[in-house]
Amino acid sequence: MLRVVTRLTADSREISNTKFKNEITAALQEIYPVDKCGIFTQSLMELGAVVCMPNGTPRCTECPLQSLCSACAAGTQPAYPVKKKKAQRRIEEKTVLLMIHAGRLALQKRAGSGLLGGMWELPNLSGKADTAQIQKWLEKCGITDCRIQKGSPVCHIFTHIEWHMDSYLIECGKAAPDSDFTWITEQALEKEYALPTAFKKVYTQNRPL
Length: 209
Hints:
This protein is an alpha+beta fold. It has helices at about 1-10, 20-30, 35-50, 70-75, 130-140, 185-190, 195-205; strands at about 90-100, 105-110, 120, 125, 145-150, 155, 160-175, 180-185. The protein has 2 domains: about 1-80, Endonuclease Iii, domain 2 (Orthogonal Bundle), CATH 1.10.1670; about 90-205, Nucleoside Triphosphate Pyrophosphohydrolase (Alpha-Beta Complex).
């Protein structure tokens, strides 16, 4: 119904706007035939579904309101109704590490706030890190004598963000006992630790254990 009205009047306001919807409703109520409101509403809805169609070319030559339609006169029917543009998802690049030491996988807790706040995750670095950068980061974490192997890239889409993740499988020779990581078995991962889908994808596609 909103599509029909916006084309008739060439109204370029965004149709999800509450004020706009209220104004259209009030305007229609003024012209509703007495005792035939339901029929009038149904007629507009059918006109929008069959003639003033949302997809493809509207069938203007069959429309009983063609002579009154501003959009038809201007040839701008496809421009209406005006819909709010969806915000483009922000892309974030990450380097995710599947670190194995003594048959156990390293996990860490995310910060308590923000996306996936407080959940378990695979250790990761912001951006695309190369082997040398990863090695340096591992040493800062007390992880040495490592063998680093490139894994498969993984993409995960949230509502407003895309994570583009490079992955690396790392066999850790030595790990400091007081590191910030929690080292778990594959069985524990399946039964005791809820890994978010994004990291579960990385683990599944590069299953190290």
